[in-house]
Design a protein that fits this description.
Chain A: It catalyses: Ni(2+)(out) + ATP + H2O = Ni(2+)(in) + ADP + phosphate + H(+). The complex is a heterodimer of chains A (about 350) and B (about 325). Chain A has about 350 residues and is of the alpha/beta class. Helix content of chain A is about 30%, strand content about 20%. Chain B is mainly α. Chain B has twelve helices and two strands, in the order ααααββαααααααα. In chain B, strand 1 and strand 2 form a beta hairpin. Classes of the chains: A alpha/beta (about 350), B mainly alpha (about 325).
Chain lengths: ~350, ~325
Amino acid sequence: MATPLLEVEDLKTTFSTDNGDLTAVDGIDFAVDEGETVCIVGESGSGKTVATESITRIVKEPPGRVEGTVRFKGRDLLSMSEEELRQIRGNGIAHIFQNPQEAMNHCYTVGWQIAEALQIHQDVPDKKARARAVDLLDRVGIANASTRFDDYPHEFSGGQKQRVMIAMALVSDPDLLIADEPTTALDVTVQAQILKLLDELQDEFDMGILFVTHDLGVVAQIADRIVVMYAGKVMERGGVLDIFEHPAHPYTQQLLNCVPEIGGNEGGIPGTLPNPHDPPDGCRFAPRCSYAEQTCRTGGQPEELDVSPGQRVSCIHYRDGRDPSLLRENAPGVESGSNGVSSADD
Amino acid sequence: MGFGRYVTARVLWAGVVSLIITTITFLLVSAAPNPSVQEAATQAALQGGDPAEAAERARELRGLDQPLYVRYMDFIESVYTFDWGWSRSRSQPVTEALGQGLYYTAQYSVPWTVLTVLIGPLVGVYSAANMYSWKDHAATGFAFFGYAIPNFFFGIILLLIFGVWLEVIPVVYNTDVAVFSVQNAVQLSIPVFVLVTGSIGAVMRVSRNESAEFQNAEFMKTAKAKGVSPLRAYAYHVMRPTLVPLSTTLVGQLLALFLGSSLLVEVVFGIPGIGRVTYNALIAQDTNLLLGSTLAFTFIAVIGNLLEDLVFTVLDPRISYDDR
């Protein structure tokens, strides 16, 4: 099997704060293959954004501290110097962010900012950089691209700004695009257009996409594989169909339960995220989990167990000799017929 | 509505402002008794003549018997044609006297302004980049010190140290040395230093606080993600938006110091600049010269504010010219 485009191993990001260290991402692993879309899913505050910003270390250091291994095309990014890393940022790995309203400098034209992203990495004359930027603006669906090049960010709408940000990210032809909730700040119709655009561009530019979102509707639309994060840990991972049809972890099940389109109850998940300064022992989700038992509350986060090919879950109920069918009964996407099968007590 | 029309409107407005100020000045002067008329009357009385008749003649001679609006038109005309009258105390035209003063004022004002404009924002942004480090605290301490200590007092202390005790600079400014000579640079270094410490404090603080906001802005994360180096990020992405609010402070500070403190500093260091010319005119009751320097300072302030407005719109593209 070929090496993945991006391989993250035991990534840990800690912030030193006045109240002591805060571990936002606590030893997670995942990989993105070439041309593949991987979604990191989880509720706000679960460490998704910090995880993606730790990859090229654009997270602020200090107060942040990134440990672990991040291999991009086989090269370890975390052992690189700042200067080597700058060659990767924007060039091999590009970012787009959640809030397009704030993501551009209001003092420069959008064209200048796109050209900057190109000219930092390549010795391109202004004229060619302009042509390339106009070309990309046109490609991401900005009408009259050659005149819009000289407009300032405040002259664009939110959706257009995100298109400009995408053009800026693509200008150096990256291999990996990290998209951190790129549609969250946009209204639903614009959201659909941006997702469609990303999908088209992914084929055209042949790039892997690491997509962060809390919106499972978006996930269903674009993901190949899913990584479910909770409180800095990975709860479950797998192909998009496996996760949507047979969510294994109680957290994933409850998360899917919150999606009204697939028969969710809209009630949300009772409780809140644990205090990141003092995470609970055992499974991070145990305090909010209705299936939690004593074993769940001791030790570290349970090891990941295979539940189906490519689908792994970090939950003790899937250990050998256990009966996980108990967890399945409330899960969405399960046919009603299988409901009465098990009523075993623990 | 374009930039050109905005500039035209702003320039016209500056003209109106200067006209209003000139008018107020005229009204104040015409309401006050004219010392030369009184002098003529006293002279006549001493020599046994008729003081009332002498006063009348003096008034006629100076056109003071004309109706107010005629005198006003004459005054306005002479102001805008730079025919600012004769300085009695210096026995030369007012414009010439002001020109001579400006010659010396420029010698320390140009380096002082350039240093403030260059160093202030740089140190301020550097301070923000190293916020709460000892470098930041040192810069902040220096800024507050310069802001708090009165310029004339600081000048006297430095003059005492470097002029009297160490004897590296003359106690009274030496006008005999060439403008571009080491000697001149040395003797001007202390007044320049005093004025820079006075003006740079506010500039540093404003640029520090503004850039502190911008260095944490989302667009800085975008820049970092693009692969922009920290130096370039500060030079382009922080400095530029910082200059917008800073331009207001900068012009305000420079003008306030130029109009106020330069007079005190010139008196302390004995520099025969425009501040001293004004001061001496006041002491000698030289109305024409005083009027001339008041107008000169006024015009400088009006032009300064005009430039500030124009720079503001050039720096921040979001400012619209439309409804102004």
